Please model this.
Amino acid sequence: MKQIGGSAAMEGVMMKAPEAWALAVRLPSGEIHVERHDEPSLYTKYPWTKLPLIRGIVALIDALSVSYRALSRSAMLAGEEEEELSGWALYLTMIVSSLVGIGLFIVMPAAISRLFINAAEQPVLYNALAGLIKASLLVGYLAFIGRFPDVKRYFMYHGSEHKSIAAYEKGLELTVENVRAQPKYHPRCGTTFIAFVIVTSIVVYSFLPRPDVYWWLLLGRVALLPLVSAIAFELLRFSSSHNDPVSKVLRWLGYQFQMLTVREPDDEMIEVAIASTKAAIAAGWDPEESMVA
Model:
């Protein structure tokens, strides 16, 4: 069985298999547009990308690249945007978004924490406060945007993605009934990954050398972000496939964060997720028919 992942899109779902990714979008007409892109993941091209820690960084780059393209494509198909972002415009958007995220969730919490705690004297307490500020900003932001109708629908499609993957991983036939019965939370969710990044950063940044130098206190956190992300990915990978007490606690933590980004989908959304899943794994999908009723 292929391991698949995915993400929500505008009125749709993107699913990614090792050798391809697929996008299904509910059009304004009510039909479901389905497209499959043969694009092997970096794992299948380069064996060295499967090494521990390296695989986390590679997986993140791979996932973000496909998710941004699928989101842009779905926005155009759903009628939300007149033109699909592509090429330099898409990657410039990715870079700007990443820089804003780094500034908001890494640099700002570090700067605020420094106003209350001396990082050189109490590094663990300092980074714990910075982690708490990050978590508070994230929770507040997600809770705020989750009140908008379009975002609520996006989160519902997120739930349909999780349910479809769960049904596929259990070997069930991909029907609306089977998919609807699955849990809406998934242990490999990207929201859980973000929660693990926050937890990991508290530990890793506590060992940052020369915390008394302010510019390095901020720049060093950015420089260590790939390492933090790689360790967080390993935690995600381990906790999703084990049932020991530590893994259960980690999954519980992830599910608490997923409460902010996952909603129960309706049957029409589940149909979209099923269509995307089938196209990604090339099961029962006819490339000559890009529309399904």
Notes: The longest helix spans residues 87-114. The radius of gyration is 20 Å. Residues 5-292 form one domain.
